Structures are given as structure tokens and as C-alpha cells.
Amino acid sequence: MHYTKDGEDSPVAKGFRMHNGIMRNSKGEVWCTDNQGDWRATTPLYHVRKGHFYGHPSSLVWDPKWPKEKDPLKNAVRRN
After folding, report:
1. What pLDDT is recorded for position 66?
2. pLDDT at 69
3. CB–CB of 14/50 below 8 Å?
4. Tens-digit pLDDT profile for the chain (80 aa)?
5. Long-range CB contacts (within 8 A, 24+) of 67-75
6. CA distance 24 to 40
7. Nearest Cα residue to 15 out of 68, 69, 29, 40
8. Contact 17, 37 (CB under 8 A)
């Protein structure tokens, strides 16, 4: 999520299971690790980019383009 100084929020990216660390470099780019777990055997390091999907389907229920009648946990999805 991105939060403005006025307290407004907007989504940046989705598909994280549980981020374990977030960092921003000197260029303002955001990086994070995602937690290893039942769906992933390793802990990846992601360069977080606006609008990208990072693999964990449960976050798709908040995507306005995702069909309301589909359970994202029962459907295959592609990562960007």
C-alpha cells in the first residue's frame, strides 16, 4: 500500500503471503522478502513494482478485475 501524507491509501502490488522485510533504496525503489511457507519452498527477494502480482492468490479477492464468483485459491494464476 502507498499512503500519502494526508492519510490516503492506494494499492501498489498484490500477491504477498507475508512480507518479512521491506526496504527502500536511495532511488526510492521498494524491495521485500516474502515468507517461505506451504505454497513456496524458498524465501524470495522481490523488487516491488506498481500493479504487479507476486504469486499468492488470496490477495486477488481485493482486485476489482477478479470475478466475484471465483475462489482465487482454487484457480491457477500467472505471476507478472
Report:
1. 83
2. 84
3. no
4. 889 999 999 888 888 877 778 999 999 999 998 877 666 677 888 999 998 988 878 778 777 888 888 887 776 656 55
5. none
6. 24
7. 40
8. yes
Please tell me the distance from the alpha carbon of residue 15 to that of residue 68, in angstroms, as a whole number: 17
Q: C-alpha cell of 67? A: 470475478
Amino acid at 25: N
Q: What does the pLDDT read at residue 28?
A: 92
Q: Which residue has the cell 524465501?
A: 43
Cell numbers given for 18: 507475508
| 3-state secondary structure string across the chain | CEECCCCCEECCCECCCCEEEEEECCCCCEEEEECCECCECCCCEEEECCCCECCCHHHHHHCCCCCCCCCHHHCCCCCC
Spell out the domain ranges in the chain: 2-74
